[in-house]
Amino acid sequence: MSHATTDPRPMTVPLTACAAGAVVALLLGVFGRVHDPTLSGTTTLGYDTVLAMKVVVSSVIALLALLQLLGALWLYGKLGRPAPAWLGRVHRACGALAVLLMLFVGYHCLWALGLEYGHLPDGEEVSLRTVVHGVLGCVVFGALVVKVVAVRSHRAPGWFLPIAGGLLFTVLVLVILTSVGWYVGTKGWPT
Hints:
The protein is mainly alpha-helical.
């Protein structure tokens, strides 16, 4: 008789992390919806607009996310070669920089643009792309909470960290495609 091997660790950590991530995403969405968008308190970092600045910084985030993916695959032995000793430190540093830049861009998105749907006060209709991007932007920060819990928890099942990392990477790619992809496709690279 064959016995299936199961991970004895409980689902408490993944379920709690997902619940906390959902709460964060929801609270950001509510804030984005009720906050009156303003450019006060924002910066363009020398670009023509806040939107152009966010495109450039989001492109850096995309590069860091790809480096995170490659680093994780290498650290977990999925690239066929042993990872060098320094890779773990570099992986953590790139991840920390990506999170800081995500917070910077997220602040500018919610503060300057909010989370709009339907029609703006001037009667202009909000595009589906804008709505999807805004909702996914909130979900990114919920997924970030899940990923941080997965990295820090020693009681989580072994499958939780790669799933949490994959979720964050996937949602981040979708957010970047609905912003950087759209902007560059319609307006070109920012100046």
